């Protein structure tokens, strides 16, 4: 018997149901009985074991129709930091780069075409420390920054679109930003986090400014994509605007802990995918991060991973684990976006003019 505690919800349920109950649970909870699990290459399994990360791969098909299929393979990476947070910042970054590069190599070997990393992926999420200056070196220029240079090379090498959520510094002002690199390695643009939390230990307003980039959608080589950064997932209109601007896939790179609504982690992005007719890809970091402030206060934060993907028809993949580095691969047919919109008629029945009027009246 496995003596390890089971942390993953999917595992807890699976291990406690008989096969018929499990089948019915999958139908009702995940939206389909068959997860569409894809076989991984033996070399990927070997690499993941060697480098200590899990890999899971699923497919989401669309119905056959007049249009040719529009299939794209998407990868999400969740991971912990590597070095203690009091190590030199250059070393902390380098160590995460090395870890993530190995996972990206496996994603490339599996044919991933669009990859998204977690929120501020190369640093500890130090925003709970209430200290700013000592972390300055983590803030980067979006186009020239070290992480962008590092990922541009990989994007080009692997013909892969990469979404890289960073801590941006522009003329002395910090922003929580996601940059998009196209499959030729060229920088396409950026989106700055619109909604900044100011709740409990997530007090981000003293660090960076609220986004001023609207709701951009990037026509990458493989799909029209957008990024709704972490706390933005609690804002329904934020999701809506990416849909109105034509997104087929919206990524939600996050850094969130149990106390901040683990019970609705599986709900908000899933609801957004259903309501807006696009694929939602949710990514959360894992691991425990410890900080000692200059006033000798010890702060500890643990993240619960559980990255997952929802299709516009509401089907979702199982989540990655709550505590391990991981790569989630989903092969998706983007034709499903249009098919679901036609079926349910949500855009057709949306009555946006009604809301626009009321919103205008209320904000006067
Ligand atoms: N990173 C971030 O915005 N966290 C806020 C807490 C949450 O929304 O989960």
Automatic annotation (TrEMBL):
Domain of life of the organism encoding this protein: Eukaryota
GO-annotated molecular function: beta-ureidopropionase activity
Chain segments annotated as transmembrane: none
UniProt-listed InterPro entries: Aliph_Amidase/BUP, C-N_Hydrolase, C-N_Hydrolase_sf
Listed GO biological process terms: beta-alanine biosynthetic process via 3-ureidopropionate
UniProt keyword terms in alphabetical order: Hydrolase
Phosphoprotein found in the keyword field: no
PANTHER family tied to this protein: BETA-UREIDOPROPIONASE (PTHR43674:SF2), NITRILASE C965.09-RELATED (PTHR43674)
Name of the protein: CN hydrolase domain-containing protein
Organism listed in the record: Chrysodeixis includens (Soybean looper)
Lineage per the UniProt record: Eukaryota, Metazoa, Ecdysozoa, Arthropoda, Hexapoda
């Amino acid at each position: 018997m496995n003596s390890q505690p089971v942390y993953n919800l999917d595992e807890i349920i699976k291990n406690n149901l008989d096969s018929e109950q499990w089948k019915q649970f999958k139908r009702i909870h995940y939206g389909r009985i068959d997860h569409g699990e894809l076989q991984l290459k033996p070399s990927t399994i070997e690499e993941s074991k060697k480098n200590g990360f899990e890999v899971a791969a699923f497919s989401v098909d669309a119905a056959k129709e007049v249009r040719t299929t529009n299939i794209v393979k998407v990868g999400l990476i969740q991971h912990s930091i590597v070095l203690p947070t009091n190590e030199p910042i250059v070393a902390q970054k380098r160590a995460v780069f090395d870890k993530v590069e190995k996972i990206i190599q496996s994603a490339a070997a599996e044919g991933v075409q669009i990859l998204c990393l977690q929120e501020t992926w190369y640093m500890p999420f130090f925003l709970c420390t209430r200290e700013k200056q000592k972390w300055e070196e983590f803030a980067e220029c979006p186009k020239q920054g070290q992480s962008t240079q590092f990922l541009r090379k990989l994007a080009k090498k692997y013909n892969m679109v990469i979404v890289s959520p960073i801590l941006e510094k522009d003329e002395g002002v910090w922003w929580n930003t996601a940059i998009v690199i196209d499959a030729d390695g060229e920088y396409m643009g950026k989106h700055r986090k619109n909604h900044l939390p100011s709740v409990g230990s997530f007090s981000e307003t003293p660090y960076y400014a609220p986004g001023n980039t609207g709701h951009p959608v990037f026509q990458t080589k493989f799909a029209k994509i957008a990024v709704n950064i972490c706390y933005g997932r609690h804002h329904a209109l934020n999701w809506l605007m990416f849909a109105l601007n034509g997104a087929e896939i919206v990524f939600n790179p996050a850094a969130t802990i149990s106390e901040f609504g683990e019970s609705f982690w599986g709900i908000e992005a899933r609801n957004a995918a259903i309501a807006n007719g696009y694929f939602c890809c949710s990514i959360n970091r894992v691991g425990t991060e410890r900080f000692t402030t200059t006033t000798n206060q010890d702060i500890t934060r643990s993240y619960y991973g559980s990255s997952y993907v929802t299709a516009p028809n509401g089907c979702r993949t199982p989540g990655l684990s709550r505590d391990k580095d991981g790569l989630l691969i989903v092969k998706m047919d983007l034709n499903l976006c249009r098919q679901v919109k036609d079926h349910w008629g949500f855009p057709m029945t949306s009555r946006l003019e009604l809301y626009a009027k009321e919103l205008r009246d209320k904000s006067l």
